[in-house]
Amino acid sequence: xxxxxxxxxxxxxxxxxxxxxxxxxxxxxxxxxxxxxxxxxxxxxxxxxxxxxxxxxxxxxxxxxxxxxxxxxxxxxxxxxxxxxxxxxxxxxxxxxxxxxxxxxxxxxxxxxxxxxxxxxxxxxxxxxxxxxxxxxxxxxxxxxxxxxxxxxxxxxxxxxxxxxxxxxxxxxxxxxxxxxxxxxxxxxxxxxxxxxxxxxxxxxxxxxxxxxxxxxxxxxxxxxxxxxxxxxxxxxxxxxxxxxxxxxxxxxxxxxxxxxx
Length: 262
Fold this sequence. Notes:
Elements: E1 56-57, H1 69-82, H2 100-106, E2 111-112, H3 113-117, H4 121-143, H5 149-163, E3 180-181, H6 185-198, H7 201-207, E4 218-219, H8 221-261
Antiparallel strand pairs: 1-2, 3-4
Helix pairs in contact: 1-2, 1-4, 6-8
């Protein structure tokens, strides 16, 4: 006698989680860091996941201003859609299934100001322009199979110009010494103070479009040191003139007093 056993599928359903594709690797070798696979430590900066000693920003719940959770979540998603997230972030660790903004708010997420500046509106607008420019270049190459020598030269020239990085102060390149990126607002405040007190019109003109972080400014350490030394020398000379004026006033007063007495 044969027995037929029928196995029925389970009626239990599982909640589907939102799976984000991994962000484009930001490393030079195209390898995604294994740190992305770890869970978020909500006690430190939610963006860089590092305890650098920099103070943390803790926005108010429901704040929709430029420092709020919704603002940051929107910009992170936009950078992700463009394929150019400033930090190597796995979006799945920022979303527990309720959305990035709600997840950040629920866990009282905090971040460094320097990290937040990488996701600000100005940075996002520039990323959009770069993405649009790349798309236009691709469309141009695909619709123009026959290229003249002059057209190829102009395209190469634009590409070379884009890759050239210059010092914000001297306009020199990396041949002189390594270039460093302006990553905090402290350096912008220092440079502005120096330029204003020295009345350096050329430097003030460079600072006019925005802060050095937003401008992606690069600089030589020696050039920044020279600027500070110029300010120090200027202040010393200014103090000397003040002392000289005080001495001249005292001598003149003594002379007048002597004349009156005689």
